[in-house]
Design goal:
Elements (H helix, E strand, L loop, with lengths): L8 E4 L5 H12 L3 E6 L3 H13 L4 E5 L5 H15 L4 E4 L14 H28 L11 E6 L12 H21 L4 E8 L14 H8 L10 H12 L10 E4 L14
Parallel strand pairs: 1-2, 1-4, 2-3, 4-5, 5-6, 6-7
The structure holds nicotinamide-adenine-dinucleotide (NAD).
Length: about 270
């Protein structure tokens, strides 16, 4: 295998399913060695490792909870002990616990903030520490390291009934920009990807019946639901030297969902 990410080591969190799985496979297809983090479902992570190694790539599966500080440190230790270094973090893990605000429990609020926002902080902090410790002459890329945070169109689109989720994604938007500003001088790039509606288990009830899909498509000017591969291709490019001058921004991969589709017919 050879490609744009030859010699790079990538850690993708939440890579046993959906977008993370697609991103991990695309990174491997581009030549990177991939650490596949999963929370509890070992089998799909092992299957992905087998698929990548079957194609001649390098991959390991590592269990860890991204909202747990000690687990995150161990996740990076195991990545570095498997592949010798780390060059790219894709902080992708995310959950939803939806409820109208008056019915939202503190546990549901905390769970989403812990995984979707604090988990991104813990993984980004650990990645920065590792990037800084790696000698410049060992780098496979122009940058000293790349962080990609999996955000959402809900970093800018308010979402009734999902206040915990939208708050976490809005937090990621400002975390990415502040972090990018802080570490650009070290040669580290930090960006977000904001997917629109992507066909994964997290939003299955929004696409798994014709009626639900038809309703969803009204929100997508480009007229189709996204697939994990749409996000994966963008992530590989954003991680590569082709995007070397890009930091502190969000790349929307959403078929136009964030373009106020309600105004298409003159509002
Ligand atoms: P998914 O449910 O298929 O995948 C989520 C992944 O996160 C799973 O692998 C899960 O095991 C992992 N995860 C959950 N809690 C974890 C924890 N504590 N520690 C480690 N891993 C944990 O959903 P997806 O759609 O692939 O979501 C991936 C990311 O994309 C999420 O951040 C989500 O918010 C974001 N996103 C998805 C969509 C979409 O339409 N599917 C849209 C915008 C943003």
């Amino acid at each position: 295998m050879s490609g744009r990410l030859d010699g790079h080591v990538v850690l993708v969190t939440g890579a046993s399913s959906g977008i993370g799985l697609g991103v991990a496979e695309a990174m491997a297809d581009a030549g990177a060695a991939v650490a596949i983090n999963y929370r509890s479902h070992r089998e799909p992570a092992d299957d992905l490792v087998a698929r990548i190694t079957g194609k001649g790539g390098r991959a390991v599966a590592i269990a860890a909870d991204v909202s747990d500080e000690a687990d995150v440190a161990r996740l990076f230790d195991e990545t570095v002990s498997a592949f010798g270094r780390i060059d790219i973090l894709v902080a992708n893990s995310g959950i939803q616990k939806d409820a109208a605000i008056a019915d939202m429990t503190l546990a549901d609020w905390n769970a989403v903030i812990d995984v979707n926002l604090t988990g991104q902080f813990l993984c980004s902090r650990e990645a920065l520490r590792r990037f800084r410790s790696q000698p410049a002459d060992t780098r496979p890329a122009r940058s000293a390291g790349v962080i990609i945070s999996m955000s959402s169109v809900h970093e800018i689109i308010p979402w009734a009934g999902h206040v915990n989720y939208a708050t976490a994604k809005g937090g990621i938007r400002m975390m990415v920009r502040s972090l990018a500003q802080e570490v650009a001088g070290d040669g580290i790039r930090v960006n977000a990807i904001a997917p629109g509606a992507i066909r994964t288990p997290i939003n299955q009830d929004a696409w798994d019946t014709p009626e639900a899909l038809e309703k969803l498509l009204r929100l997508i000017p480009y007229g189709r639901i996204g697939e994990p591969e749409d996000v994966a291709r963008a992530a590989v490019w954003l991680a590569s030297d082709e995007a070397d001058y890009i930091t502190g921004t969000t790349l929307f991969v959403d078929g136009g969902m964030a373009l106020y589709p309600g105004f298409r017919d003159n509002g």
